[in-house]
Amino acid sequence: MAEPENELHTDEMILNIGPSHPATHGTVRVLATLDGENIVNADVEIGYLHRAFEKSCEHGTWQQAFPYTDRLNYNSAIINNVAYAMGVEKLLGIDVPERCRFIRTIASEISRVADHLTCIGPSAMEVGAFSTFLYFVEARELMWDLIESLCGARLTNNYVRIGGVKADLPADFAEKLKAHFVKTRQLIDDVDKLLTHNRIFIDRMRGTGVLSAEDAIDWGWTGPCLRSTGVPLDLRKDEPYLVYDQVDFDVPVGEYGDNFDRYLVRMEEMHQSMRMVEQLLEKIPEGPINVEDTRVRWPAKQLVYSRMEELINHFKIVFEGVQPPKGEAYAAVESPNGELGFYLVSDGSGKPVKVRCRPPGFANLQALGPILKGGMLSDLVPSFGMINMIGGECDR
Amino acid sequence: MPAEAIFMAGKIGFVFFLVLNLAGVLGWVERKQSALMQDRIGANRAPIFGITAIGLFHPLADAIKAFTKEDFIPARAHKLFHTLAPFIALVPALTAFAVIPFGDTLTIGGETTQLVVADLDVGVLFVFAIMSLATFGVVLAGWSSYNNYSMLGGLRASAQMLSYEIVMGLTLVGVFMVYGSLQLTEIARAQGEYFVFGGVNTWIPKWGILTQPLAFFLFLTAAVAESKRLPFDVAEAESELVAGYFTEYSGMKFLMFWMAEFVEIVVISALVATLFLGGWQIPWLHPDGLHVPFTAIVVGLPSLVVSMMGVGAFLMKVFVLIWLQMTIRWTLPRFRYDQIMRLGWKMILPLALVNVVLTGFVVLLLNR
User: Fold this and answer.
1) Does the beta carbon of A124 lie under 8 angstroms from any beta carbon of chain B?
2) Do A200 and B231 touch (CB under 8 A)?
3) What is the mean pLDDT of residues B342-349?
4) Touching B: A residues 16-75, CB under 8 Å
């Protein structure tokens, strides 16, 4: 007698998920070949949010690229600003003042908290925990309040300038930050209680989307995703930039390299970032926030209106742009999702020849197909959420 | 007899009115409660002549909107089944309420009637039989839509609902053994008795939750799973399957699936209230009035008042259970499909069997 399973003929089904689908925030398309509920193969297609970032940058002056960088990873726009500014400053061969570096670090870490909140909240919502999403949205609003008090914008901040930042910290910043951090910590604790020991949540996250440390390195993973596999790579510790060498913080690493570890790493990083910001606010020195070089940073408006020399400088910097010497430079920062790098080429004019962005999301997303293979259809949701691909930076 | 006919019409009218309105209002309750849990305001618009009544008119606005929407049927869908599916999903859920008693007997003008539409002696089995018909609606919807998401949703729903029906039935076996009946009115009435230990009346009512605590939790879990709501909503899992089996539905048909879900919540709550929380019973309140515990004092009450209090108590219990289900829905994440199956077959089912055996021993010992 024939085995029953030999008599039943089954076919594989191709399920098209995205680019417009509730799970694929950031417009990506996954072509999943399903055998019942199991994913046999998953082809990930990107590029739906391609806006020619790199080409657009070549059409403006060096400063004019800042708003474009905002739109790479829009959850932590300031970190993109910082990375780009660091690249241009490397080309110019200048150092920014100490206070500016502190402010940039503070703004970066607040952005990092906002980014992690935006990663965990929606991911939890997609596995069904809707309330936690709104708790984290509330916390993110608090982070954006802080960023708004810095630069006036909540989402696309455009805060950093070549050789400085747009504005100094407002007078009541420390007070406001203290109050907001208290509330944010409460919200994070609430979500921690709702998710971290929740059996259903653990079942969904633990053991899904597993990638070994070797594979993660081979795929070019960085950031929390790589750290979840146990590799303690963090540019803030390994190649300290800004003032990260002056603060005390831990780099949390995972053990199994699964979605739950990615979640835990991000939860802990938020606490570390807030710890850092508090230390920095205590240590922040007084002083100028911009370099005193009129070829790089335009003079104060008052002087432009009243003095000839400054007016000319202002005119030249606006129309010709900052003119870095001929050469190339690569600057990388630890963005919330991994190494965010800018490779810049200058021919000595006011416009970039090449602005190449190395987005962490692109490298991280490469491994989505392999980690989905062999899993179930439902695993796609937390795996994609925890990789935290941001369409803006992945597709540029 | 005309009196009987009037009573019957009244009861049917009341149940229909109650269930349909509750289902409508639940849409609003769900919004408000989720808003409360999430630090939001929730539905507060839809004014009628400038009166918003904390958003209570939203269900009305929803209905008007759904009626005026285009009724879309995908080009390659099976038109008949696609149209039929929402009806098959909604009608059984409504019908199941017929056998659930919502109060004790009511006496008006010398005529006495039991406050239940149909007092069947196979009550619970009828509910299961009818509720399992709803599976067809869901499966048909998934299959006839000609959409991969719908089909996956329908498949998930059929497997899940069939599994949990078995589990649900088995968890209740203990209850039948304790009360010795399948008739819901009998089970509810039997819960009005008190535990008597060694001839001493403890004045603790024999509610199902006390005689069958394990069955209560198992049945509630299975029932929530049967209603396909979070954490068991893999059939519509909006983040994976868009809307699951009703992805291709719009307008009133969509609303019918939505309503079927809410009616199921009401039915489940009513069933749990009847089987485990004493139905219409209020502790120490008997048809002749309030019995003060540990004494022989009876505070006499007119039978009409007692009947009405019973109906109120039943509704109260239903509301509490609805609230519980809503809280669960807005707190927990979703299971994965295989995890739901594992929970049903490998955890709840064996526990239900253990419960049956234990109950058997206890019943045997007590009746010896």
Assistant:
1) yes
2) yes
3) 88
4) 16, 21-23, 34, 37
